Amino acid sequence: MKKEAAEHYFTAKPKSRPRLGVIHAHLRGRYFEFLTASGVFSKSRVDLGTKLLIQSMILPEEGLVLDLGCGYGAVGIVAASLNPRLQVYMVDVNERAVWLAKQNAKRNHVENVKIKRGSLYAPVAKLKFDVILTNPPVSAGIETITKLIEEAPNHLKPNGSFQIVVRSKIAGKRFTRLLEESFSHVEILSRKSGYRTFIAKT
Asked: Which residue(s) pair with 192 in the sheet?
């Protein structure tokens, strides 16, 4: 963990030598296998925040879904697997994470995904989504999180939802106010293991 903290996973090109591993996980009643590597977030397991988001996320019957900051792809791949009628876009700034996400889409036999590299919404700037899902890179700093939240409504369709998971100790008044300033309706979707999932709509 200390080594990963030294090299931030919210970076375009990790310099550490990749050490590959495989995670086996049961999520939403299905079995998944994820290839992981050093230099990406939570390489040894599906972290508790991501797991809570996956278990709680509300998906449309059809439409476009964005997994923002996808890492090795757990959230987007599970969403795509649950509903083949969705088109799931997965975005990460980390080129190693993007490579892993592509491998994991193949490994888990999901084809309704498009995986792109770039910062925040830049790779999907022209698209509007029914749902945006994110376990944000909190350690990247408040400016990044603020931008991620404030720009979300511009990338949502009417009645679309923004679903975000954060540690409960981070989800204080400042964070809640940030959501409420960007969205007209905000509520807590779930709480567990020191995390909260919020759902917000314009």
From this structure: 195
**Regarding beta strands 195-201 and 129-134, do their DSSP bridges make them parallel or antiparallel, or are they unpaired?**
unpaired
Looking at domain 47-201, its CATH superfamily turns out to be Vaccinia Virus protein VP39 (3.40.50.150)
Query: For 2-155, where are the E strands, in sequence order?
Result: 20-27, 30-37, 63-68, 86-92, 113-117, 129-134
Report the amino acid identity of residue 129: F
The pLDDT tens digits of the residues spanning 112-144 come to 999 999 999 999 999 999 999 999 987 777 888
47, two tokens: 């972290």
Detail the DSSP E strand segments found in 50-184: 63-68, 86-92, 113-117, 129-134, 156-167
Quote the CA–CA distance of 187 and 197 in Å, as a whole number: 9
Domain ranges of the chain: 47-201
Instruction: Please state the φ and ψ torsions of residue 38, each to the nearest 5 degrees.
Output: -60, 155
- Predicted TM-score (pTM) above 0.85: yes
Query: Three-class SS string for 159-178?
Result: EEEEEEEEECCCCCHHHHHH
Kind and range of the H or E element at 53?
helix 48-56
Q: How many Å apart are CA 19 and CA 175, to the nearest integer?
A: 35
Question: In this structure, what are the phi and psi dihedrals at residue 18, rounded to the nearest 5 degrees?
Answer: -65, 130
